[in-house]
Amino acid sequence: MSKYTISEVKTATDRKKFLQMAVDLYKGDTNWVQPWDHDIESVFDPAKNPRFEDGDAIRWILTDNRSGRAVGRIAAFYNRESAASEELPAGGCGFFECVDDQQAANVLFDAARDWLALHGMEAMDGSINFGDRLMFWGVLVEGFHQPVYTMNYNYPYYGKLFEEYGFGNYFNQHSFLREFGPDIKLDQAMYDKAARLYENPDYSFECVDMKRLPEMAEDFRKVYNSAWSGFSGVKPLTSEHAQEMMKGLKAIIDPQVLYFAYFKGDPAGFFLMVPDINPIVKLMKGKFGLWQKLRFLYHLKVKKTPYRLSGLIFGVAAEYQGRGVEAGMILMLDQYEERRRDAGKVQYQTLDMAWVGDFNPIMIRMCEQQIKAVKYKRHVTYRYLFDRERPFTRAPRLGRTKKETPAVQ
User: Fold this and answer.
1) Residue 383 to residue 162: CA distance in whole angstroms
2) What share of the chain is helix, strand, coil (3-state, %, to 5)?
3) 233, 237, 241, 246: CA torsion to nearest 10
4) Integer Cα distance of 60 and 57 in angstroms
5) Phi, psi dihedral angles at 202 (to 5 degrees)
6) What is the Cα–Cα distance from 220 to 323, expressed in whole angstroms?
7) 3-state secondary structure of 390
8) Please, which residues have CB within 8 angstroms of residue 345's CB and are 6 or more apart in sequence?
9) Which 8-state DSSP code applies to residue 150?
10) N or C: which end of the chain has fewer CB within 10 A?
11) In the chain, what is the straight-line distance between the N-terminal and C-terminal CA atoms, in Å?
């Protein structure tokens, strides 16, 4: 008799078991924060996730036959358009949770591999999301502290489970931490660059105007598409997606720490930061009904519970790269923190810049040398090749023919 039974998630009861399995696994671990149930369930809802238009997803639960207890879970998914854009068609596995048992992990990985191979995939990335890279992406291997919201947290043995199965390190995702304080200074070159632009009347630097949020969403789209246009494998952002992103962030935006740069009115750059809401989400235990919404708003707007900033996306339009635009936006944050300290109203203690891939050395240099941030977490995106004789290659470094400048997600 097999030690484990794997079953597909099909019913509402199955979906609850899928969510509850992680709750039971991390019981007593104060670093783990239970995500909102709806954030996970929306990933697997074709009405809410556009990747289903040219793809599919499936979920499983692993049960211990002797105890009847759920000891693992996994999802697998693919999108044909994304797979076709790569040399090697790759699907993904994600939302992986498992007890410290290689046999259990292997059953889960086998199910995901076989299902993806059946649908024409030749490789499997994990543990990743069936959607934006900003959410639920990567296996944590260094820095087992409380994460910022939607960044994966897992037990230290997870990396071993992936590697023993045969996954290779496709790329690292570094998280950088910068503390705020009177003794924390930027590189002098950043001050010099910013000063030149501040004196130039053609340039302007603005905090987000909540009354103009739809217009600024379009400005964001223009800069994003320009900043990333030289990178392989990056799809242009549509107006609809940009509006949806800003609409989704609207409830948690702090207008004082979300910056745009303009040259003669033309959008030149953006630096999107939001308060990290994980300390509040931790109180919700996965739910977000009316009472939780009221409690959330109280902690966010009145009590101001978030104590750190989460750096989401940074970019400079191609035509304005190399002019110091990034310095102008970063200095705005330092000036804001200085004003708060002088007024005795400090809220944010640190800036967490997550999801800086090791394939993006430009942004890594900027974080370390100019912003003076330090690496404090590392996630790994693993890749498993179905053809075990095929040579394994890591993700290619980002490169462009135009003058380099940081652009990060």
Assistant:
1) 9
2) 35, 25, 35
3) 110
4) 11
5) -75, -20
6) 19
7) coil
8) none
9) T
10) N
11) 47
Amino acid letter for position 251: A
> What is the spatial distance between Cα 354 and Cα 21, in angstroms, rounded to a whole number?
26
Amino acid at 46: P
Domain boundaries, the chain: 4-166, 178-378
Side chain identity, residue 5: T
Q: Which helix (H) or strand (E) holds 90?
A: strand 90-98
145: tokens are 């502290």
Nearest CA among 77, 136, 86 for reference residue 112: 77
Q: Domain 4-166's class?
A: alpha beta
Task: Please give the pLDDT value at position 402.
Answer: 35
Question: The whole model's pTM is what?
Answer: 0.90
For 101-125, the DSSP string reads: -HHHHHHHHHHHHHHHHHTT-SEEE
pLDDT at residue 151 is higher than 60: yes
Following DSSP, what letter does each residue of 4-72 receive, concatenated? EEEEE--SHHHHHHHHHHHHHHTTT-TT--PPPHHHHHGGG-TTT-GGGGGEEEEEEEEEETTT--EEE
CATH superfamily of 178-378: Gcn5-related N-acetyltransferase (GNAT) (3.40.630.30)
Q: If you count them, how many residues does the chain have?
A: 409
Q: How far apart are CA 9 and CA 200, in angstroms?
A: 59
What does the pLDDT look like over 314-366, one tens digit per residue? Answer: 889 999 988 999 999 999 999 999 998 888 888 899 999 988 899 888 889 88
Tell me if 357 sits within 8 A of 151, measured CB to CB.
no
Rounded Cα distance between 334 and 322, Å, is: 21
